[in-house]
DNA sequence: TGTTTGTTACGAAACGTTTCGTAACGACGC
DNA sequence: GCGTCGTTACGAAACGTTTCGTAACAAACA
């Protein structure tokens, strides 16, 4: 029962979720202004999207005042993990290794980021001694 | 002009592409049998999908004999890279680091795979000495 | 030849996503 | 009070995806 009934946000919905994750609870106007920085989008389009997301339970809203305030109902990390699972299954035959190789391969990554990944690998090693610990020696 | 006019396969289309990538050029019947291992899907559904993919240029087909043979027109790696770019933009604010952390974090990964990733990191380091090469010693 | 079997072609329904036009409504300034 | 402005609500169109029923057709076979 670890997997809950997580909604599957569409691409447009993800765009909005990113605004809410990064900027916190926001009005329709604010979200629309943020989206408008990237592309043309009508105000009522953003409004409708948020209303649909509200119906789906993807966002909650505070409608105590006239201009409603929307808030992400999905946690960023959980959602990202779900999306990776989807992509893993849809295009990588379930191999996380291949995905990571692709993500790092044809992409310029800074030394700092590479180091952070190394640290992550080390911490996984320590937490999870799957095979003979001798091998590390 | 590095970016071509790459089609964006849907989820169902990716399912079929995976079959063609792994099994090579295949008939509708074969693809449908493969898909049927995972879920219920009608023969004409698979056929129609392949026909649409053909129109879109996602697959090519040899119709010299009565039963046509379909072949992936997209390379696996290119497509995977494109999908990662999409996901990166759609949900990770463009940070490949965050994506990799997510992919490795809440997932059990074998020591062997971790080592392969380490090798990949090392090879990236060698190819791309952004900072002091001394650090590697 | 006539029947069965497996194939392609085609149309359409069902559904979800995205977009926007229009209307109603409250707040605010004049 | 009245008009303006920003907001929400609602309906619908346009579009893409997915699914499947039906028909046409060719090959194999009895």
Q: Supply the number of helical segments of chain A.
A: 6
Question: Largest protein interface?
Answer: A-B, 47 and 46 residues
- Stretches of chain A where pLDDT is under 50 for at least 5 consecutive residues are none
Number of domains of chain A: 2
Run of helices and strands of chain A: HEHHEEHHH
Query: CATH first level of the largest domain in chain A: which class?
Result: Mainly Alpha
CATH topology assignment of the largest domain in chain A: Arc Repressor Mutant, subunit A
Describe the 3D structure.
The structure is a homodimer. The first copy, chain A, contains six helices and three strands. Chain A is mainly alpha-helical. Chain A has two domains: about 10-70, Arc Repressor Mutant, subunit A, CATH 1.10.10.10; about 95-130, no CATH class. In chain A, strand 2 (about 60) and strand 3 (about 70) form a beta hairpin. The first copy, chain A, is elongated and about 55 Å long. Chains A and B meet through helix 1, helix 4, helix 5 and helix 6 of A and helix 1, helix 4, helix 5 and helix 6 of B. Chain A binds a DNA duplex (30 and 30 nucleotides) through helix 1 and helix 3.
